[in-house]
Amino acid sequence: MAERGSDSRVDIVANHVSKSSEADLRSVLVTSVLNLDKLDTDLFRGTHHWVPRTKRLFGGQIVGQALVAAANSVSDHLYAHSLHCYFVRAGDPKVPVLYQVERTRDGRSFCVRSVKAIQRGQPILICQASFHMQQPSPLEHQFSMPSVPPPDTLLTIEELIQRYLSDPNLADNTRQGLNKILADEVPIEIKPVNPPDFYRRVAMEPKKLFWVRARGHIGPGDMKLHCCVAAYVSDYSFLGTALLPHPNHRAQFSASLDHAMWFHSTFRADEWMLYECESPWSGGSRGFVQGRLWRQDGVLAASCAQEGVIRVKTVSQSKL
């Protein structure tokens, strides 16, 4: 089966890649991260692009790839509206991930898919995704988008780090840590609205706002694809929101336990969206975070929620 699958790519990604004429500008999220091998009916294989410094698989990648696999098993007129995932084992970046899709239910307006992400014969993620046929309704409302500066007036994470590195009095260990962040080949671009204090010297409210988009070009494409990219993006820097009120503690170990996402409106994941993150609670070595992704025109595109384990150690104040 592996040999046959080596030439077969998941339809929602492969169709988009073949239509793009801007090969050098394509988002790596489309050409690599979310571009699965189809091994058999409802069986796919994913490989890895970016691996965090934890040396474990990035949770957003597994969620995004699971949604790609699920989306490939539904009709073209059905779109993802929610997903619910449990991370049950740490992923090994040296081993490909198999995605096994179960067609749980096919209804007239809604259908459900169950996906197991498997390494070495054991599940590392269990995901259920629901798809529906878009229907108009007179019942519509949403919260108001926070009032923030537009993305073209803000600096990227990389530009902010370069500013810190220009300080001749910067401590060596801090400089090394910032250079490691710069060396990461993260396939998304971020512009913080309230830039983080990289030294973590003061307690902050457990909230953060940043503009985010996929690096490279995706184009209007298929909403299924943009939902898969948004699922990848939604896990980035999410759980860390729970640490903001605790400057005297550092995460010794952290990992996502579960992740849920709801898609509300159409959007493009390669255009700037505002990610509003907050942590209403932490305790028992766990943190709970919620998020909202807003389009630039103020439309609520998606909502997210996650709980994760966070084991910390007490640290002294950083010295510049």
TrEMBL record:
Q: Which Pfam families match?
A: 4HBT_3, Acyl_CoA_thio
Q: What is its main location?
A: other
Is-annotated flag, keyword Hydrolase? Answer: yes
Please list the residue ranges annotated as the Acyl-CoA thioesterase-like N-terminal HotDog domain. 49-132
Q: What are the record keywords, sorted?
A: Fatty acid metabolism, Hydrolase, Lipid metabolism, Peroxisome, Peroxisome biogenesis, Serine esterase
Localisation per UniProt entry = Peroxisome matrix
- Cite the InterPro entries for this sequence: Acyl-CoA_hotdog, Acyl_CoA_thio, HotDog_dom_sf, TesB_ACOT8-like_N, TesB_C
UniProt EC number: 3.1.2.1, 3.1.2.11, 3.1.2.2, 3.1.2.27
User: Residue limits of the Acyl-CoA thioesterase 2 C-terminal domain?
Assistant: 204-309
Report the record's Gene Ontology biological process terms: acyl-CoA metabolic process; fatty acid catabolic process; peroxisome organization
Q: Which NCBIfam families match?
A: tesB
Describe the family membership recorded for this protein in Swiss-Prot or TrEMBL.
Answer: Belongs to the C/M/P thioester hydrolase family.
Name it.
Acyl-coenzyme A thioesterase 8
The organism is Onychostoma macrolepis
